Amino acid sequence: MRLLLVEDSERLQRSLGTGLRQAGYAVDITGNGAEGLWYANSHDYDVIILDLMLPGMDGLSIITQLRQNKKQTHILILTAKDTVEDKVRGLRTGADDYLVKPFSFDELLARVEALARRKTGDKNPQIDLGSCVIDLKSKTVFTDGAPITLTPREYGVLEYLAVNRNRVVPRQEIEEHIYDSQVEPMSNVVDSAICSLRRKLEQRGAAPMIQTRRGMGYMLANSAS
């Protein structure tokens, strides 16, 4: 999953960037509101974490512009503005959630996870694929109740295919949502991750489920009954 963090505090940029990446997210970061609007309009993010008081353009103006442009990306406001009026204004402008500073990182992470599930329509924090189960909360994949050891990128690819199951996902879309920066043209990072995933899943007895659609991308077939 790919996130955009628009926050002008360099300390929060570093701490949140590190924590979110360790949780398995790809994260783009900017401290400028106008640049944040450009990022949000130019990429398909799963969640945007947005401060309100920013140089270049304030957060409410960013939300207004995005909603006028029909951008439906879920937005979590992260701000020190804590009055009821501030919260009501932010939500009515078009934000999906509101978190006041100071905050618990665990709470921030839980809210981001909830917004990401809302985007895909998955209310259950587990995805049952029949041969295996993905726990979105713990970022763990299980077969017969036992966890499979995956790298963060392997897990990220599998999770993205799972929340988009039963449709073909182009390789470029996977790259944009899983990797922090643009990969080189003709890179095989996605193909390598897919190959490793197939091997690890099949070694644990999971049925083959990741299909290659040549010239189109990859598709995860849901084998759950």
Q: State the CATH class of the largest domain.
A: Alpha Beta
CATH H level, superfamily name of the largest domain = Response regulator
Structural class assignment: alpha/beta
H/E series: EHEHEHEHEHEEEEHHHEE
Instruction: State the strand order across the main sheet.
Output: 2-1-3-4-5
**Tally of DSSP helical segments:** 8
Q: How many domains comprise the coordinates?
A: 2
What is the number of strand segments?
Answer: 11
CATH topology of the largest domain: Rossmann fold
Q: Low-confidence spans: pLDDT under 50, at least 5 residues? A: none
Radius of gyration (Å): 18 Å
Q: Which architecture of the largest domain would the CATH scheme give at its second level?
A: 3-Layer(aba) Sandwich
Strand content: 15-25%
Helix content: 40-55%
Distance between the termini: 26 Å
Shape: elongated
Mean pLDDT over the residues: 88
Largest sheet: 5 strands, parallel
Description:
This protein has eight helices and eleven strands. It is of the alpha/beta class and 225 residues long. 42% of the residues lie in helices and 20% in strands. The chain has two domains: 2-120, Response regulator (Rossmann fold); 126-220, Winged helix-like DNA-binding domain superfamily/Winged helix DNA-binding domain (Arc Repressor Mutant, subunit A, Orthogonal Bundle). Helix 2 (33-42) packs parallel to helix 3 (59-68) and helix 6 (152-163) crosses helix 8. The protein has a five-stranded parallel sheet with strand order 2-1-3-4-5, sandwiched between helices. Strands 6-7-8-9 form a four-stranded antiparallel sheet, covered by helices on one side. It has helices spanning 10-22, 33-42, 59-68, 84-93, 105-120, 152-163, 171-178, 189-203; strands spanning 2-6, 26-30, 47-50, 74-79, 97-100, 126-128, 133-135, 140-143, 146-148, 210-213, 217-220. The longest helix is centred in the middle third of the chain and has 16 residues, at 105-120. It is elongated, with a radius of gyration of 18 Å.
